[in-house]
UniProtKB/TrEMBL annotation:
Cited InterPro entries: aa-tRNA-synth_I_CS, aa-tRNA-synth_Ic, Rossmann-like_a/b/a_fold, S4_RNA-bd_sf, Tyr-tRNA-ligase, Tyr-tRNA-ligase_bac-type, Tyr-tRNA-ligase_bac_1
One example GO MF annotation: ATP binding
Gene: YARS2
Recorded family membership: Belongs to the class-I aminoacyl-tRNA synthetase family.
Protein name as it appears in the record: Tyrosine--tRNA ligase
Length: 480
């Protein structure tokens, strides 16, 4: 208990000063925060349960002054994904209401592996991979937070801090940690958690390392409670057991009340959880999921769920969402809610430029727009046609349609390839070409950005970048 006493004495209260400018926003913004979270579908459970009047206790706590709330994100991949957005948006809503939000990257806990929602152990991460993943998550969180501030344009607000729990574990000795912290946990309680029970009953079983994951997450909550006066933890619905363990630990050691809020898990139309483990993740990192792919994911949502997603993933007022849905009833063919949803979430994750990129790609692909193709940079074309070969060729005088098709290996050799062109099976920049001996023309076959989009049949694309062009065409666009 000695180290616990030292931590209590060293508790840091420097957070309070951060909120003075946001006082007015806090008094107005957090008054109905829990109601707002509930109305928008971001509030699934409050722990402890409502039967103990804890929802009222949490409401009163939020009214008493600016509070600190945290949510953890383990860097098991180099990017967050759409499934993490409800938790991130909940943090941002607390921040907008004048509270202090902590996004905790689990640099240490990622090495252990959260068993929640899994059927087998996670693959161990190397130090290099863990460092790369941590950088990726930090960049995701920083960018979304910056975009939200730009979109909402509010000056008076709380603050956002990104921490790494490796900071307080890297110098702890294992024996000292287990004897001072581990003694406060009871096996019966730990074994009763759903995440543990489901794993113990599986063919793979459960390793000791994964079993004690909940102890480390509980200690994270305790550490933030002691050093940052954090009394609220946010997590996905599958994190309720871990949150309960943290609550029990803090109650046992300090006797103080803390709270947990769970947000819903985002599932596919088939009911599968969206995430890395399920293999259907929509990533927040542009290199893994382009702004175009990200935009299209939301644009393709069904009418039956689009209103819910507008409430979950955007900061649009509920009254505006109701108006959008009313207009949709009159003109469903325009897919107005889907367009607005895709635009708002893409701006939040990829910024205004990311949304513009997504729209350019959409116009180029689905509206056969040559102007949109010319406005695209190399990166956008590679993202749009992710599976298409990206080929660099030297432009020689007299290069023909047949030449470029053969150099890219887009058509078979001999008469069969020749006939594919004459039969209309080849298009360059959305225009069919039927003369194999036609010489390539700048501005027609080769766009001003030095690129050509070659299509064979309906679905086979090739992106050609020409390396030697006339001076007037050598200014390539770049994505920023």
């Amino acid at each position: 208990m000695e180290f616990l006493s030292r931590l209590s004495i060293r508790r840091v209260h420097r957070i309070t000063a951060c909120f003075t400018p946001a006082r007015a926003l806090h008094e107005s913004g957090s008054r109905n925060l829990l109601t707002v979270l509930s109305q928008r579908g971001l509030l699934q459970d409050v722990f402890p349960s409502e039967s103990n009047n804890e929802s009222q206790a949490l409401f009163e706590l939020l009214q008493s002054g600016a509070q600190t709330v945290y949510c953890g994100f383990d860097p098991t991949a180099d990017s967050l994904h759409v499934g993490h957005l409800p938790a991130i948006l909940s943090l941002l809503r607390f921040q907008r209401a004048g509270h202090h939000a902590i996004a905790l990257i689990g640099g240490a806990t990622a090495r252990i592996g959260d068993p929640s929602g899994r059927t087998q152990d996670r693959e161990p991460l190397s130090a290099e991979q863990l460092a790369q993943n941590t950088r990726g998550l930090r960049e995701n969180l920083r960018r979304v937070s910056a975009n939200e501030q730009f979109l909402c344009g509010e000056e008076a607000r709380g603050s956002m801090t990104i921490l790494n729990n490796n900071t307080w574990y890297e110098e702890r000795a294992a024996v000292e940690f287990l004897t001072s912290v581990g003694r406060h946990f009871r096996m019966g309680t730990l074994l009763s958690r759903h995440s543990v029970q489901s794993r113990l009953q599986s063919p793979e079983g459960m390793s000791l390392v994964e079993f004690i994951y909940q102890m480390f997450q509980a200690y994270d909550f305790y550490y933030l409670h002691q050093h940052y006066d954090c009394r609220i933890q946010i997590g996905g619905a599958d994190q309720l057991g871990n949150i309960m363990t943290g609550y029990d630990f803090i109650q046992r050691v300090t006797g103080q009340d803390v709270f947990g809020i769970t947000v819903p898990l985002i599932t596919s139309s088939a009911g599968d959880k969206l995430g890395k483990s399920a293999g259907n993740a929509v990533w927040l990192n542009r290199e893994k999921t382009s702004p175009f792919e990200f935009y299209q994911f939301f644009f393709r949502q069904q009418d039956s769920c689009v209103e819910r997603l507008l409430k979950l993933f955007t900061f649009l007022p509920v009254t505006e969402i109701v108006h959008i849905m009313n207009m949709h009833c009159k003109e469903p063919e325009k897919r107005g809610p889907q367009k607005r949803l895709a635009a708002e979430v893409t701006k939040l994750v990829h910024g205004k430029q990311g949304l513009e990129s997504a729209k350019r790609c959409t116009t180029a692909l689905y509206h056969n727009s040559v102007d949109a193709l010319e406005a695209m940079c190399d990166q956008e074309l590679q993202e749009l046609f992710r599976e298409a070969p990206f080929i660099e060729l030297m432009l020689e005088p007299g290069t023909t349609v047949l030449d470029v098709c053969r150099k890219t290996c887009a058509i078979p050799d001999g008469a069969r390839g020749f006939e594919m062109i004459t039969a209309g099976g080849v298009s360059i920049n959305h225009h069919k070409v039927r003369n194999p001996e036609e010489v390539l023309i700048l501005g027609q076959h080769i766009l001003k950005n030095g690129l050509s989009l070659l299509r064979i049949g309906k679905k086979n694309f090739y992106v050609v970048k020409w390396l030697q062009l006339a001076p007037e065409t050598e200014s390539f666009r770049s994505c920023k």
